[in-house]
Amino acid sequence: MDSELATVLRVWRDRTTPEQVGLPVNGPRRVSGLRREELAMLAGVSMEYVTRLEQGRAEAPSASVLTALARALQLDDDEQAHLFTLAGHAAPGRTRVLRQVPASVRRLTEQLGANPVAVADAGWGLLLWNEPWAALFGDLSAARGRRRNVAWRRFADGARGGITHLDEDAFERGLVADLRTALGRYPDDEELRSMVGDLRASSPRFAALWQQNRVGVHRGSRKTIDHPQVGRLTVDCDVLTADRGDLKVIVYTAPAGSEAAGKLDLLRVLGRQDLTGDRTR
Length: 281
Known about the structure:
- One of its GO terms (molecular function) is DNA binding.
- It comes from Desertihabitans brevis.
- InterPro entries: Cro/C1-type_HTH, Lambda_DNA-bd_dom_sf, MLTR_LBD.
- It holds the Pfam family HTH_31.
- The radius of gyration is 19 Å and the shape is globular.
- By secondary structure, the chain is α+β, with helices and mostly antiparallel strands.
- The chain has a six-stranded antiparallel sheet.
- It has two domains: 3-86, lambda repressor-like DNA-binding domains (434 Repressor (Amino-terminal Domain), Orthogonal Bundle), CATH 1.10.260; 103-270, Beta-Lactamase, CATH 3.30.450.
- It has helices at 3-15, 36-43, 47-54, 63-73, 77-86, 103-111, 131-137, 150-155, 168-185, 190-202, 204-210, 259-270, and strands spanning 117-120, 126-129, 163-165, 220-227, 231-241, 248-253.
- The chain is built from twelve helices and six strands.
């Protein structure tokens, strides 16, 4: 791994204080910045992996790990782009999907923090999510690759995870039309093209919808979720598209004063405790 990547990670960790990221400071510290174990916790990786990265002994991290590190270190857009470049991920061009989350979009998710919020790339690969989202759907930190992709989980895994949509057919049609639009917009993105090809081969439902040649942008739906802690609730899912890179900001809400809103409030208190599996499919 490039030694410069190891160096900048150490420098950025040293400059990031616990106060900046909302961590408590209990007693005197030998360093003013984050400890390795604190960065690991914030980024959802092991401390051993952070150590290997900073010592130049680890393989180059994936785009999802880089995004998590950038979020934990509160990097701005230029710093995040530099981080991706050092790790061997070329800055996405016009014909490839952006898999970085700009600082401005990260700030937006933080400001919407009372609601479950996630960010996906143009091909529906989940890049980040907040605590209310993890409490509602389960934490995907341990998931890798396509296991974080909404379309793959829907059509290839074949499970619903306790989620039903007000109109299942419209949801699936909209998702496939959105993927076709993304592939047309980013024709050189091998990861997206490969996933679509594998979905066409493995899912008769996806293949049938793909053959309809529909294009469009999926903007949201209503979902009913059977949650193991708070029971059944119905929420509105709105998909906002960021101008830069067609990133999708996915926000879940319920009418003020409704039973569902009360259950979302309860989940914010309960957090992710005692959750069994995820319900994102």
